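Run log, item B.
One chain of 592 residues. Sequence copied directly from the ordering sheet:
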Amino acid sequence: MTFEIKEDFLLDGKPFKILSGAIHYFRVHPSDWEHSLFNLKALGFNTVETYVPWNAHETKEGVFNFEGILDLEKFIQTAADTGLYVILRPSPYICAEWEFGGLPAWLLEKNCRIRSSDPNYLDYVEKYYHVLLPKVTPFQMENGGPIIMMQVENEYGSYGEDKEYLQAMVTLMRNNGVTAPLFTSDGAWLATLRAGSMNEQDILSTGNFGSKGQLNFKNLASFHQNNNKKWPLMCMEFWDGWFNRWGEPVVTRDPEELGEAVREVLTIGSINLYMFHGGTNFGFMNGCSARGTKDLPQVTSYDYGAPLDEQGNPTEKYTVIKNVIHKMFPDIVQTAPKVKSTIEKSSIQLTNKVALFEVLEEISERHTTKYPANMEYFEQYYGYMVYRTKFLKDATEERFRIIDGRDRAQVYLNKSYVTTQYQEEIGNDIQLALSRSENQVDILMENMGRVNYGHKLLADTQRKGIRTGVMMDLHFMLNWEQFSINFEKLDRIDFSKEWQKNNPAFYQYKFELEAVEDTFLDISKFGKGIALINGVNLGRFWEKGPYLTLYIPKALLKKGENELIIFETEGIYSETINLSSVPIVLDLSQKE
């Protein structure tokens, strides 16, 4: 088959309306890919779209991972087997409310300007593309595969106007075997389209928006015409919901209003629903918004208010959109969607607990330096690091300050809790009351997620941990130990050691299951931290909500004994914990 972009999208020479939905393979357990793709096809859609997250595939420089939830080739093949075409967006930057917009954090320690024509940056992209692109080019349509289009860069017009960089990206793609039609996607107004498009290279420009389809397509068509192009109109990201941040109400959208907005778009052009199935920011991969000088980390759930919920089951939006498709295109075959079930289990008893500081050395890599250094320096790109030093008493009370740190600091004196400071408070005075002649201070620093969009991609606040130093009185303190906590070493925890009130700690729960299905971990009785089921990091939780559960895919559970380990940083925990059949969401709409 052939796919071309002329005055229309042409599939084997015939006009083709793209009905696409976004499913990010890296946010959905591989055992559930077929379920989500089937439901997209059942809706009557013909295409699936996905980003490719560079930071997940090359977490450490030169070490690549394309297995399990990162098996992109298997995802593409599953889409083809389901009867779907594929739009692939392999750009080094993806935004996507994903940690650092998909850029690997090790770039922060390199002498390069990201998303630019800087040769140093392009050299890192080239090395990545030498590995990535040979895996996907065999799936291009000309090779009998499902890929019909690939993206050059993502919403670049909302970031820069370095056309030399965009051309370099095209060259890298072409030199690595990409022959499929290329496109750019930007906000549908003149400034972003002009900055981010490549019309002079005959590369299709598409628009991203979530409403006012007629107006936005009018702007896009005018931009095409002013550049002597007569191209089909496509909304590459039609936002059918929105992402959520800690401590804020869940963003909602009326299904009937959405259905009318989808109909408006499809009357004029093609569509890619962003998202069709949002899924989950497993591990430490949640992104972060920026509002002025304040960073606003996003939650673990990427439910997004999409047609499929976080679990992958149809919502009311699914039904409304299905009815719109049926009325507009009655010849399209639609089938009943698949629905997964859930299980619940109450009063799972606490098995063991132990304080972090009692087992820190067993589960961490230890680094010694004269002055404390940022987390990236030690290749601790995500999660937590403990900074420790010892000092002699000079006064009964000392002025203590963390200079230039991110994102969240918890201070302990001789293993007793002192205070917590967030990004806007770090640097303020902390008074330490000293009763011992020799003392130890521990600072637990948390990277709560890097900004994924906008000018702050280059901000120094993207570097986490302590960047300048720590002061006692008026001088910088020396001789630091830094402990990079490695959550893959939790089997080394000795739970017979001491637990201490108000300290960060590990809580172990062991429980039996006779049958396994999807479920939701109820963490409403805990403060802040992460949860791991059978060794897999489900993601972050925080009592401020709005989400008070973590989604557990069926495939992460086992018949027989299961182990849940919760790392909690506030000293708030429960002797029992529950598995819920539904997500628990706080109503924060009345919050002032």
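Observations after the first pass:
- The first helix runs from residue 33 to 42.
- The longest strand covers residues 345-355.
Flagged for discussion on Thursday.
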